[in-house]
Amino acid sequence: MVEAYLRRSPLSHRGLPARARADAGRKASAGLLLAERPHRAQINLRGEADAAFLDAVRGALGLTPPTTPNTTAKAGELKALWLGPNEWLIVGPDARRGEIADQLRAALAGQHTAVTDVSEARTAIAVSGPRARELMAKGTGLDLHPRAFKAGQCAQTAMAQANMTLDQTDDMPSYDLYILDSFADYLWSWIELAGADLDIAVVE
Fold first, then answer.
1. Domain containing 105 — which CATH number?
2. How many CB atoms lie within 10 A of CB 186?
3. Which residue in 23, 59, 73, 123 has the most C-beta neighbors within 10 A?
4. Is residue 198 over pLDDT 60?
5. pLDDT-based confidence at residue 1 (cuts at 50, 70, 90)
């Protein structure tokens, strides 16, 4: 884990908190709301989705990993995103990252599993607002119409040719885009350019 005093968001140079304060009066009327959600606990979990595995994870975290493709499950502060038949991303508060990983490893001891802390590899860009779906359609070929993709669904896809994990968090719609740190600045720049006609406000 990186020492706390050395940690920087990949978008820290953009002064987003100051921009959010400046845009506060426009938040209610903006068509597109943007924010960074840095330093989330992100634990990659792999294992066969049999009863023993699912019971162990539920016992450790109070959360059962979803087995339906491209869906999410939530319990309290924790969320599990389905990435594949035997792979999930567990997301939660930064302060719990070590606890989450340790509890999973202890509960799954003796099973053929892998628990990997990938928190420092990616940040999350939050995109929401009444015109969010319009913005997303400019960058991804994924069908995000409500009949095909809604809150509680996720997907590994590309946005403006940058690979990401997409999580729709509500039906506003709101999305969290989990993107590698090295691509975060590129994707933020692309979003601002592509959304220039959508009335953007930066929020906290």
1. 3.30.70.1520
2. 14
3. 123
4. yes
5. low
124 closest CA partner among 181, 198, 196, 182: 181
Contact call for residues 79 and 130 (beta carbons, < 8 A): no
Question: Rg of the chain's alpha carbons, rounded to an integer?
Answer: 17
Give yes or no: residues 110 and 156 share one domain.
Answer: no
Range of the domain at 189: 13-38+122-202
Domain CATH code at residue 175: 3.30.1360.120
Distances in Å between the alpha carbon of 141 and those of 137, 144, 166, 186?
7, 9, 12, 19
Residue 168's identity, in one-letter code, is Q
Share of the chain residues as helix, strand and coil, in percent rounded to the nearest 5: 30, 30, 35
What is the reported pTM? 0.94
State pLDDT tens for residues 53-106: 999 999 999 999 999 999 999 999 999 999 999 999 999 999 999 999 999 999
